[in-house]
Amino acid sequence: MTKSHQVVADYVLDHIDDVAFLSITELAGRIGVSEATLVRFAKELGFSGYPDLKDNLQERLKDEVASSRKIESIMSEIQETESTVKQVLGNQITHLKRVIESVSDEDLDLCARWIAKAGTIYLFGDGVASVPVDSMAFWLTRFGIEVCKVEYGGRRLFDQACTIGQDDAVVVFAFGRDYADVAMLFDWARRQNARTILITDVPYTHMASLADKVIVFERGPMDIFSSMAIPVAVADALVVAVTRHKGETALEAVRKLEHLRERYGFL
Description:
This protein has 13 helices and five strands. It is α/β, with parallel strands linked by helices. It has two domains: 3-63, Winged helix-like DNA-binding domain superfamily/Winged helix DNA-binding domain (Arc Repressor Mutant, subunit A); 101-258, Glucose-6-phosphate isomerase like protein, domain 1 (Rossmann fold), CATH 3.40.50.10490. The relative contact order is 0.12. Strand 4, helix 11 and strand 5 (213-216) form a beta-alpha-beta unit. Strands 2-1-3-4-5 form a five-stranded parallel beta sheet, sandwiched between helices.
């Protein structure tokens, strides 16, 4: 970014709640930049203009409010039911069965082959979506696969993503809405000729249009608490498929780890 755009980015990150409801004139006055600078800043992030950027920030705030309401809803239902375990796990089992029916074995296997052949796997998931990312990163690393977790969105997204190359693969978990950060990440990865995989519950989005392959499934009813149990299960299935393609290479990495632990008394 230019210096002026960096100033704008810093202000937006520190005052997101305010910026979401400021006009372009008001924001320009607060930061001390021109309105044209704000328009160019928004377009640099992949938005059509400042109104589009502001709409995105407002949606983020709505999501935060909705998340708190989901927690309140599930807590209320838990108090009214006799068996929390049966209610919560029963709901997960129901939706896991739907995932089995909706996720294509061919699509999953294709993604697994891309990951198995890639040089480095870049994993990204914002907020609670970091849970399946962490699970997948743990197992892929154990099987000797090079993994890079992209830890931040926004301006820091490319601190790690800038190293994406043509032999790499990018796997993103994103749920509930369209993410401008993910769209930017996929656009950059495409320009580097890297493979891109989106795992989501919202298929008809800009970010989905930029992915080489989209795996779609329902996490559960959106009016109550939606856990990451199902996304983690899908991530586990993908890891298992990857190890089948890696074959002896994956097993050798596990053996090496076991020998190392044995050598130093960690059996």
